[in-house]
């Protein structure tokens, strides 16, 4: 039972354009969401997060949007750069206290010059 | 640089032969996690330590054990590896277990079971 779904295994975008990575979740108890980025041969690194009390969080070129009614979140990267090429994982957690992260399967983003 | 280190990066073991994966951290974080990621699947939490307190996930097989002898080190022991245990094993740390505390991941150990 996959509670966090990233239905697009890969995405190709040209440099300078917008990248939109999508994530859907099924557990209505999830109230905190994160995006991690992973380069080859490295561990995932935290990118950006959003609490369910917000519908948008922005950090530089990265913006995460949350649509609670649709149980959907997206990560926008504007403008995309070749260095953004990586695997992006969506993750979610529920409740207070211990932060158990439930991950999606990842989307591989390729930004071409 | 403060970091999470996993050794070895690649581990080959035989079916049924015990194997130990190691993780060390220079971040002085209180929480250490072990995740399993099989090919094309999401990373899945196996267990975590909060200081010396061990917390096992309900669906983690008994075949998987962990030790944390001190703050810096944590080990994943697979007592009798099966072919289905071939995966990437990721270690992570955080300062505290609360959700706002960022988890820092090591590069992972890829386990191959022959």
Overview of this protein structure:
The complex is a heterodimer of chains A (113) and B (114). The mean pLDDT of chain A is 95. Chain A contains no helices and 11 strands. In chain A, strands 2, 4, 5, 9, 10 and 11 form a 6-stranded mixed beta sheet that branches. Chain A has a 5-stranded antiparallel beta sheet with strand order 1-3-8-7-6, with no helix packed on it. Helices cover 0% and strands 56% of the residues of chain A. Chain B has 114 residues and is mainly beta. Chain B has no helices and 11 strands. Chain B has strands at residues 4-7, 10-13, 19-25, 31-37, 44-50, 53-56, 64-67, 73-78, 87-94, 104-105, 109-113. In chain B, the strands form 2 sheets. In chain B, strands 2, 4, 5, 6, 9, 10 and 11 form a 7-stranded mixed beta sheet that branches. The mean pLDDT of chain B is 94.
Give keywords.
heterodimer; A: mainly beta; 5-stranded antiparallel β-sheet; B: 114 residues; 7-stranded mixed β-sheet; 0% helix
Short description:
Chain A is mainly β and 113 residues long. Chain A has strands at 4-5, 10-14, 19-25, 30-38, 45-51, 56-59, 62-67, 72-77, 86-94, 102-103, 107-112. Chain A has no helices and eleven strands.
Largest sheet geometry of chain A = 6 strands, mixed
Strand-residue proportion of chain B: over 45%
Uncertain residue ranges of chain A: none
Write the H/E string of chain B, N to C. Answer: EEEEEEEEEEE
Question: How many helices of chain A does DSSP assign?
Answer: 0
Helix content of chain A: under 10%
Distance between the termini of chain A: 38 Å
Gyration radius of chain A (Cα, Å) is 13 Å
- The structure class of chain B reads mainly beta
The chain pair with the largest interface is: A-B, 24 and 25 residues
Beta strands of chain A, count: 11
Class from secondary-structure proportions of chain A: mainly beta
Radius of gyration of chain B, Cα only, in angstroms?
13 Å
- Rounded to the nearest angstrom, the distance between the terminal CA atoms of chain B is 36 Å
């Amino acid at each position: 039972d996959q509670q966090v779904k990233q239905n697009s295994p890969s995405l190709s975008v040209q440099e300078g354009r917008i990248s939109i990575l999508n994530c859907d979740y099924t557990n209505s108890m999830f109230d905190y969401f994160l995006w991690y980025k992973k380069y080859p041969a490295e561990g995932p690194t935290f990118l950006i997060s959003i609490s369910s009390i917000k519908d948008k969080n922005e950090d530089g070129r990265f913006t995460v949007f949350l649509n609670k009614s649709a149980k959907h979140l997206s990560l926008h990267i504007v403008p995309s750069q070749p260095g953004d090429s990586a695997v992006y994982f969506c993750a979610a957690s529920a409740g207070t206290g211990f932060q158990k992260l439930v991950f999606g399967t990842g989307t591989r983003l390729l930004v071409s010059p | 640089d403060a970091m999470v280190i996993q050794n070895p990066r690649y581990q080959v073991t035989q079916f049924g032969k015990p194997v130990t994966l190691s993780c060390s951290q220079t971040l002085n974080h209180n929480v250490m996690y072990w995740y399993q990621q099989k090919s094309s699947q999401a990373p899945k939490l196996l267990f975590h330590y909060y200081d010396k307190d061990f917390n096992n996930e309900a669906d983690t097989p008994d075949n998987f054990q962990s030790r944390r002898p001190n703050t810096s080190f944590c080990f994943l022991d697979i007592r009798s590896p099966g072919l289905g245990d071939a995966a990437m094993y990721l270690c992570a740390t955080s300062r505290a277990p609360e959700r706002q505390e960022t988890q820092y991941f090591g590069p992972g150990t890829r386990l191959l079971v022959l």
